[in-house]
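Incident log, structure service

09:12 report received: a user says their structure output differs between two submissions of the same chain.
09:20 pulled the input from the user's history:
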Amino acid sequence: MKLKDDIRGQIISKAKKIVVKIGTGVLTTDDGYIDKSQTKRLAEQVVELKKMGYDVVVVSSGAIGSGMGELGIEKRPSTLPELQAVAAIGQSKLISTYDECFKLHGYHAAQILLTREDFEDRQRYLNTCNTIHTLFQLNAIPVVNENDTISVDEIKFGDNDALSALMTNLLNAELLIILSSVDGLYDKCPTAKSKATVIPVVENVSREVKQLAFDSKTARGVGGMQTKLEAASIVTNAGEAVIIANGRMDNVLKRIVQGENIGTLFLPKKEKLASRKRWIGYTIKPKGKVYVDDGAARALSDKCKSLLASGILLVEGTFSKGDIVSICKGEKGVIFARGLTNYSFEEIEKIKGRSTSDIAKILGYKLYDEVIHRDNMVIL
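09:34 re-ran on a clean worker, output below:
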């Protein structure tokens, strides 16, 4: 295996687009107000990346935290209407601070507020991508946040770590930098009595790695190491790299792109997923589940085959043709793939376990031989 610093250098040298996620704890003071001096320092670093030739998108938390600070609220509101109202107040403060800082260097802050629906609707998904690429050509830096003012539970990302992962996949960005209030992923939970060490490189976001997450949520944030590891898993499985680092560290962004061994680097899988497969595998919320037998699971995972009706044991959910469903191994199996189904729940319920030649006799028609075609499937 190559030296870790060399791996960093190789990954960064190939990067053209970078998504920088900035957490609430990085942006705000202890009393909840936007830390303008800190925001100014981060803005200067983002501009430096632009001048170095990178296309940069900032995914910024802080709207609710900023609103709490403006209103003098110490505890994060617990009801959705309160959160939305506080976000409405804080978002304007947040984007105006970014715009003020970027304008010092001749750039504008381009505000983009999104909900999960914007990612799940294919046309809106592509429109968002086109808008951001157009902004790259202007003296503007996209500043993305969840549209907390209108989001409801069904369409919320839950945290901006997830949003930053989806944004990275949307743009096919080669690197996601998550700036947090911790130095990276520790080998154990740091305490006053037990010194923890930052893990410099993670090759795979395995179950064991996820167990290293500890609760570091602040009163104004909703994330933590667990959500960051989930984001890292999504991005690395799509073939891109992730670095988690301390956003309060001096010149952290510049030092990262210069290859300095800062934070934790999560290595990308060798195979890069195409844009459409990223959308299928990691963006859309599945509408149902299809349970397959061991033979079908092996054919999908090891032989790159399509899913046929004969390999299906059970089906659950409410979905139509063209919806995304999860594929599980065995009747009580773990999800191992996702795909775009050619048949509805009702149709699959009738043809499960039957051969392809029986479909027309059972349904009175046959739309496709495959229930899920390999081209519309992602192995997770």
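09:41 both user submissions now match this output. Likely a transient worker issue. Closing.
09:42 reviewer note: The chain has a mean pLDDT of 89. DSSP finds 15 helices and 13 strands in the chain.
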